[in-house]
Amino acid sequence: MLRCPSCGSRDLFRTIGGYAGSEYRCKKCGYQGTFVVESDEDMPVPERRDEQPASRLDIPLWIRILAVIFLLVIIALYLL
Ligand SMILES: [Zn+2]
Predict the structure, then answer these.
(1) CB burial of residue 10 (10 Å; 0-12, 13-18, 19+)
(2) Can you tell me where the transmembrane regions are (predicted)?
């Protein structure tokens, strides 16, 4: 989608298609030139995913209990 770089309007029409390429004119503000803005604004913007790294709190409770028991066993064995 081409847009006017001056006012952002889409009401552009081509005036010249010559050696230097195309020249456009804006109906709204009267801008005339070869430079126009190509905007993808109408395209759906891909949603940005907020992926969070796996938190420690996501570890299941039983695994944490097992880890604590395991540590206690190791400490007990060490002390004995
Ligand atoms: Zn314009």
Answers:
(1) middle
(2) 61-79
Asked whether residue 35 is assigned to any structural domain, the reply reads: yes
Side-chain-side CA neighbours of 20 within 13 Å: the count stands at 8
Calculate how far, in angstroms, residue 19's C-alpha sits from the geometric centre of ligand 1: 24
Q: Cα of 39 to ligand 1 centre, how many Å?
A: 14
Q: What is the pLDDT along the chain (80 residues), one digit of tens a residue?
A: 888 999 999 999 888 666 666 788 999 999 988 888 887 665 555 566 666 665 656 788 899 999 999 999 999 999 98
Is 47 within the bounds of a domain?
no
For the chain, the domain total comes to 1
